[in-house]
Amino acid sequence: MSTTRDLARVITAHRQHEGAGFIVRRPVPGPGLDLIDPFLLIDELGPIDYAPGQAVGAPDHPHRGFETVSYILEGEMEHEDSAGHRGFLRAGDVQWMTAGGGIVHSEMPSRQIQERGGRVHGFQIWVNLPASLKMTRPRYQEVPAARIPTATSADGKATVRVVAGEALGVRAVIDTHTPISFHEWRLAPGADVTTAIASDQQVLVYVFAGKAIVGDGATVIKDGQLAVLAAGDAVRLRGNDTDARLLLLAGKPLREPVARHGPFVMNTRQQLIEAFEDFQSGRMGEITRTAIAQ
Q1: Is 274 helix (H, G, I), strand (E, B) or coil?
Q2: What is the pLDDT of residues 191-222, one digit of tens each?
Q3: 158-164 vs 150-152, strand pairing mode
Q4: Are 95 and 140 a contacting pair, CB within 8 Å?
Q5: What is the pTM of this model?
Q6: Rounded to whole angstroms, how far apart are CA atoms 204 and 226?
Q7: pLDDT value at residue 290
Q8: Distances in whole angstroms, Cα of residue 199 to Cα of each of 3, 10, 74, 88, 183
Q9: Coil/strand/helix, residue 3
Q10: HEC string of 143-202?
Q11: Cβ–Cβ < 8 Å for 71, 56
Q12: What is the per-residue pLDDT across 70-113, written as a single tens digit (0 to 9) for each?
């Protein structure tokens, strides 16, 4: 018999500037909260409507020791890195980048949005890597919207896109180094759906449109709030009085020391120093600019 996870706490996202000056809503990290193992950061960009010449992104910057997950809801993004990877992300696409031992990366709105303006909305999630994989070879998994599995509840009131893990009988095509679930749920009023999540995983639910009820209680989770769930092996999601959209994130905690500064997440201070030295000396490489096929 499954045990529904109760609500442990609710965190309201704060706003701050990132990259070249864009604003994000960020529930984690926040005041007095560095991470929720294994999740290091949850950023929601937008939704924002850029006028021509206003769009900004995250120009060349390094990463080491963790993974970045970019999930595009609206708009277009271009990316390049020092390992020669480059690509173009559109609405509904996901990029799961394992930075591993180190990479220099650039993420920018498409040239069209920079020049003509447009609407941008999306997420970037940082997922920690275990000590044994901190220096693994960088890896990309890019999945277009059409390949992300979807499912609908029997009553048609709940739908899910499964970026990682599984739900309602469908399994993601993305492979993760550690057990991770990443779902986007849409709930209509009256929706009531339960999905299994392994009992050894930490579960978070971030509402980014409307309102939802998480667990068996009556607490309403509003737009811009993150629900942290207690122990159990099932998550119950219910619609409220309006349509709701939310991310369900789950991962097995690593329970390892975290030494973190800026774009590097390692296990010791000495490893952080080595990461900065490798970046400053050019050992992480640099981006060679080329035209990106669109």
Answers
A1: helix
A2: 999 999 999 999 999 999 999 999 999 999 99
A3: antiparallel
A4: yes
A5: 0.94
A6: 7
A7: 56
A8: 9, 20, 33, 36, 17
A9: coil
A10: ECHHHCCEEECCCCCEEEEEEECEECCEECCCCCCCCEEEEEEEECCCCEEEEECCCCCE
A11: no
A12: 999 999 999 888 888 888 999 999 999 999 999 999 999 999 99
CA 126-256-138 angle, to 5 degrees, is 45
Residues comprising the chain, all counted: 294
How far apart CA 142 and CA 71 sit, in angstroms, is 10
Distance, CA of 270 to CA of 143 (rounded, Å): 36
Structural tokens at position 282: 């050019």
Q: For the chain, which domains are there?
A: 7-101+108-251 (2.60.120.10)
Order of strands, edge to edge, in the sheet holding 220-222? 192-196, 234-239, 211-214, 220-222
* DSSP code per residue over 205-272: EEEEESEEEESSS-PEEETTEEEEE-S-SEEEEEE-SS-EEEEEEEE-------EEETTEEESSHHHH
